[in-house]
Structure to design on (416 residues):
DNA sequence: TAGATTGTTAATCGATTAACAATC
DNA sequence: TAGATTGTTAATCGATTAACAATC
């Protein structure tokens, strides 16, 4: 399918290349170079060329990269050629903000099911969707074959929700709960943790 | 002040240690070990000991680490002994969710000022705060000496807002706008980008 | 052709891990 | 004391960068 030996950090940079290329394309630019991409992203040209070389040859010597072609190749590599269904668990303030996040739709991540455990929240409508009872999470995820999930529940519930999702067939989780979540190694996990980010940034601030 | 040669990736792990230690303390545990911390976080014990050794000696051979002591030391190292004022720019759905984020208060990051450019939003109240006009951003940030900012504006406005913040004295920015933001090297920047995260996770999912 | 830029190799740089003496 | 665990060194591992032949 795909080489399992490509470093994860390389995979993480591909979406950045894709986004910059998309902006260039919207601006009507047909050709770019590793140097130009690197300048936008603060990444060295050599690294960009090396990253791309894991997947093939996409440029022409002396000339650079054709923007539209490289976009199509990156979408193919990242499996972004079709839309992905996503389940969202935890409909608090953050969950609601994510449910209406236009950037997800724009990039063909469709939130197709919402769940919460609070009886006050279950049954509420958000746009076209109705919040389901987390008790039904396993059944819905497995019957619909959903592979991607976003967790926005309190820390205490995150591990349990993750376990249910994985058992139901989810293969990748975006976790907003401020807690470590353990997953088997065949499941991808990204945690988004603004408090941890602020805490590490505080290190670099002088005390007053 | 502090050694500038400590790897950034080490600094990023310290908040994870701090959070796990805090959970252990809440559970009434007085002593822990690099092995136990590592098991919670999926980090090797050797790495935890090495990370801590950049800052001093905090454990006892044969015994481990005193939880409360290590917490206090990590807070000191990360400059978390006092509260930090934070300015939040961009009061959309995500901005509102962040404004009411209890985890920030819990960790003594106080959002003390809100800004937006939309006349419909300016003047609205969120809890104790009123949304200000982004035109006043520079004046408020510089007069209050705010060093930390969260950006939750649309992509097109992120760079301009960042430039204003930095000019007004902000030294670290948590960026939720889905766009690369360039900052001088004496300013810290963390970008939170759920779409990029989902895109890189999609790589690991088989197409169907 | 001359200039530019790719793809790739080898060198460098940096982070992680294994191992163990010190010692509680 | 015996067992356990730290702090640290050296070895290993992996990622980034520099350099350049190939060639558009």
């Amino acid at each position: 399918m795909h080489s399992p030996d490509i470093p994860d950090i390389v995979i993480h940079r591909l979406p950045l290349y894709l986004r910059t290329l998309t902006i260039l394309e919207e601006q009507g630019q047909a050709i770019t170079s590793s140097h130009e991409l690197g300048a936008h992203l603060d990444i060295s040209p050599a690294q960009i060329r090396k990253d791309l070389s894991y997947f093939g040859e996409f440029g022409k010597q002396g000339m650079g990269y054709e923007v539209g072609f490289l976009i199509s190749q990156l979408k193919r590599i990242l499996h972004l050629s079709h839309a992905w269904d996503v389940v969202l668990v935890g409909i608090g303030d953050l969950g609601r903000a994510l449910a209406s996040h236009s950037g997800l739709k724009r990039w063909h991540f469709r939130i197709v099911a919402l769940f919460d455990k609070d009886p006050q929240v279950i049954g509420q409508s958000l746009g076209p969707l109705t919040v389901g009872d987390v008790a039904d999470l396993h059944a819905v995820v497995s019957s619909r074959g959903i592979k991607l999930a976003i967790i926005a529940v309190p820390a205490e519930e995150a591990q349990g929700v993750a376990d249910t999702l994985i058992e139901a067939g989810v293969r990748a989780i975006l976790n907003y709960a401020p807690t470590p979540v353990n997953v088997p190694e065949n499941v991808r996990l990204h945690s988004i943790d603004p408090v941890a980010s602020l805490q590490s940034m505080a290190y670099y601030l002088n005390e007053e």
Notes: Residues 33-35, 45, 49-50, 52-53, 57-65 of chain A lie near DNA strand C (CB under 10 Å from a C1'). Residues 83 and 108 of chain A are 5 Å apart (CA to CA).
